[in-house]
Every structure is written in structure tokens, then in C-alpha cells.
Amino acid sequence: MSGLDLTRARPGDYGTRARSEALGFLSPPLGAVLDVGCAEGANADLLRAAGACRVTGIELDEQFAEVARGLLDEVVTGSVEDELPWAAGSFDTILCYDVLEHLRDPWSVLARLRELLRPGGRVHVALPNARHTAVWAPLVFRGRFAYAPAGVLDVTHLRFFARRDAEELVRGAGFEVTAVEHQRPDTAPGRLALRLGPRLWPELRAIHWYVEGRRD
């Protein structure tokens, strides 16, 4: 299947998924939130329930953005890599869930987003785990990358991050790394494997790393 075919084969709910697991690692107060890559705005209700006083989004897909305008306080259509319309210190919390790995220069983007935060504000990043067995097992045993319509080897990913890379990305943008979490297994065998190998399982089987960084 070609890269174009893989992109067209994306799951039908690609723009409607709320990130409940990621948001579960954020403690209040959230204040004014910028959801980067907000898709159709599925996080809006969860963010408000967690105490967000205002929810703003930026979304590249025009159709997704139009839907999100019915749920968020403000939605800008465009790329986070372009010039952004908000003044310095506009937000208390910035979310970058499954966004940075799609960018040419996520390091510079995250550093620019830092300027949009008030002192003490935080960024929360979700990045696919490039150390996952889905990445290296096909390469070792089949001699190929197993690109897919979505997931760890999404065909549109440009950058790849293991846990240490994710931490360095956030730290290098000028943040203090205050929390590092990982996806939890959703099957009984997975939960058993996590108990038996609490350090190894997330390194090789967690789909996402969640890194929180705080601006001084």
C-alpha cells in the first residue's frame, strides 16, 4: 500500500478522539488552554470539566477546525509552524498531543510556544514511543518499516522520539520537566507484564510518552 493509500485509510474517528488518558495526568488549575492540533475539538468538555476557563485551538485541517468552532471558545485554522496570532503570555496550559512528530522542526516550535505561556505555565506533550516493538520488530525480522494509517508508525510522522528524546525536546525548549508518564496497558496480559517489568514494559510497549514542562 502506498503512502497516499495509507493516509486515505485513516480511521473514521481520527478527528473526534478525546484524549482522556493524556488529560488524566494533568492536575488543575488549567486556566486558559491552547490545544495545538485540536482536530474537531473533542477535548473541550474534558478540559472545562477539569477547570479550564477558556479553550482555544489551532488546527490545520479546515473541516476539523470548522467543527471545533462549535465547541471551543476560539479556533484558528493554520499550522503551528507559522506565525501565531496570540500575544506573549496568553495561556496557562498548552497541549501538544500527537502533533510535534508531524513537524519539520518541533524543537523551534516548542520554544516559540513557550513564549505564549504565562510565568509558571506549562506545556503537556504526547509523543509516540519510537522504542515500541512495532517500530523495530518489523525492521529486524522483516527488513522494513511497517508504515500504517495511524499509530506509532503513522505514515505522516517526520520525527521520532523515545522517552529520553521526548524529555530532551521539552527541556531543550526552555522548560523544566516536571512529569513523565506513559500509556497504561488496557489488557490483562499487558497489566501483568507491567507489574513484572515496571521499567521495561513502558520503554518497549507503551504507545505514548506524556511529558509535562513548566515555564519559570
List the helices and strands and how they pair.
Blueprint lengths: L2 H6 L11 H4 L7 E6 L7 H6 L2 E8 L2 H7 L5 E4 L13 E7 L8 H9 L2 E12 L4 H10 L20 H10 L3 E7 L5 H9 L3 H6 L2 E7 L2
Parallel strand pairs: 1-2, 1-4, 2-3, 4-5
Antiparallel strand pairs: 5-7, 6-7
Structure description:
- The chain is of the alpha/beta class and 216 residues long.
- It has a single domain (14-128, 157-214), classed as 3-Layer(aba) Sandwich (Rossmann fold), CATH 3.40.50.
- It is built from nine helices and seven strands, in the order ααβαβαββαβααβααβ.
- The chain has helices at residues 3-8, 20-23, 44-49, 62-68, 106-114, 133-142, 163-172, 188-196, 200-205, and strands spanning 31-36, 52-59, 74-77, 91-97, 117-128, 176-182, 208-214.
- Strand 2 (52-59), helix 4 (62-68) and strand 3 (74-77) form a beta-alpha-beta unit.
- It is globular and about 50 Å long.
Notable characteristics:
single chain; 216 residues; alpha/beta; Rossmann fold; seven-stranded mixed beta sheet; 9 helices; 7 strands; 24% strand
Brief characterization of the structure:
This protein has 216 residues and is α/β, with parallel strands linked by helices.
Parts with pLDDT < 50 across at least 5 consecutive residues: none
Structural class: alpha/beta
Q: Gyration radius, to the nearest Å? A: 17 Å
H/E series: HHEHEHEEHEHHEHHE
Distance between the termini: 47 Å
CATH arch. level architecture:
3-Layer(aba) Sandwich
- Tally of individual domains: 1
Q: How much of the residues is beta strand, in percent?
A: 15-25%
CATH H-level superfamily title: Vaccinia Virus protein VP39
Q: Tell me how many strands there are.
A: 7
Mean model confidence by pLDDT: 94
Biggest sheet record: 7 strands, mixed
> How large is the count of helical segments?
9
Instruction: Write down the CATH topology.
Output: Rossmann fold
CATH class: Alpha Beta
**Within the largest sheet, what's the order of strands?**
3-2-1-4-5-7-6
Molecular shape: globular
